[in-house]
Amino acid sequence: MPHTPDRRRSLRPLTLAAAGALLASVALPQLTPDASAATTLRGYADARGARIGAAVADGPLRTEPAYTTVLNREFNSVTAENAMKWDALEPSRNSYNWAAADRLVNHAAANNQGVRGHTLVWHNQNPSWLANGNFSASELNTILKKHIDTTLGRYRGKIYAWDVVNEAFNEDGSLRNSLWQSKLGSGYIANALRWAHAADPNAKLYINDYNIEADNAKSDGLYNLARQLLAQGVPLHGIGFQAHFVVGQLPSSMKANLKRFSDLGLEVSITELDVRIPLPASSAELAQQSTDYKTATENCLGVPRCAGVTVWGLTDKYSWVPGTFNGYGAALPYNESYGAKPAYQGLSDGLNPQA
Ligand code: 9MR
After folding, report:
1. 212 contact partners, CB below 8 Å, separation of at least 6
2. Which H or E element spans position 246?
3. Ligand 1 centre from 235 Cα, in Å?
4. Hey, whose CA ends up nearest to atom 8 of ligand 1?
5. Which terminal residue of the chain, N or C, has fewer Cβ atoms less than 10 Å from its own Cβ?
6. Phi then psi for 285, rounded to 5 degrees?
7. Which residues are catalytic?
8. Beta-ladder partners of 77
9. pLDDT in tens, 70-82
């Protein structure tokens, strides 16, 4: 090996007295535990140019300082858990309620967080005037375009990615017979993406779904649609993998499945990660949950074009899981008193390539 001069060797050795004087003159590093930004989830995510997000509920955002403390310290992205859904934004026709959505967008701007928009076209959480309106196809098209124009227009430039179409597929890979599909046919997906792109050309536009993390019939259906849309020049930019898991049951094909979408040139994101446990959770299950958080995060970030990971909530105090899956809970990285669970460390290690 050629000799490379070592600059340290050219320094003259310090006398003991000189060394002592030097030491006395410099501030000693603090020996207290390092709470610097670099060791938070968002610190690790920032360091690799990724998003670490949380779904935010409006109630605790308004009223619970412990909630916002964790949210601001740990996350560089937020998603409205409910506040940007159609029933929240337009509860009666042509009468809008932007308060909660604005609150989150403003909160994010004040705390240097990006916003994922969720969601524009869905079969669920539609206002009753829309769900029960019995509109013709042409009326429904006009209504949908207006919804997209109005919502994306209001937040133009403030939302880095939108879940434009949510949960459009059945488990067998066919398209769900939703209000949109049944009245407008499958063309509603391309139309929604085109309208969204015109309304906010800089937002990354996603199709988002659950049970598509594995290579299975449902993800095959979505893969085929994504390929067709791209071939037709439709502005589809990403796929959101919700990732609502049961502890110990991450699909082994997850990383390869995300990669096949990424290989189409699409972004991939985990958009709603949680890992539910049958209650009461044992310490072995909490440890397995930690591993699951780490593996899920690595499965995304290990794939080219993974934009990041969003967790569907922060704390077990506010989670959709116990209300939906009888006997299950404890799905999130923080416990009900905002203590970090083993899952927090798993998520952190998944974000930190040095862990
Ligand atoms: O977490 C949301 C919960 O508060 C709502 O009651 C529920 C109603 O549909 O929606 C939950 O969020 C869902 C998300 O919008 C789409 N994917 C599944 C999520 C969990 O149900």
Report:
1. 169, 218, 219, 222, 239, 241, 242, 257
2. strand 244-246
3. 26
4. 125
5. N
6. -70, -35
7. 272
8. 53, 114
9. 999 999 999 999 9
CB 143 within 8 A of CB 135: yes
What is the model's pTM?
A: 0.90
State how far the Cα of 122 lies from the Cα of 208, in Å rounded to an integer. 10
Ligand 1 pocket by Cβ (under 6 Å) = 81-82, 124-125, 242, 272, 320
Give the residue extent of every domain in the chain.
Answer: 16-351
Quote the tokens at residue 221.
Answer: 């259906």
Contacts of 222 (CB under 8 A, 6+ apart): 169, 173, 207, 209, 212, 239
Alpha carbon distances (Å) from 289 to 41, 332, 333, 341: 17, 9, 9, 9
> Between 3.30.70.1710, 3.40.1260.10, 1.25.40.10, 3.20.20.80, what CATH number should domain 16-351 receive?
3.20.20.80
User: Can you tell me which atom of ligand 1 is nearest the CA of 55?
Assistant: 1
CA distance 244 to 270: 10
Assign 38 a pLDDT band (cuts: 50, 70, 90): confident
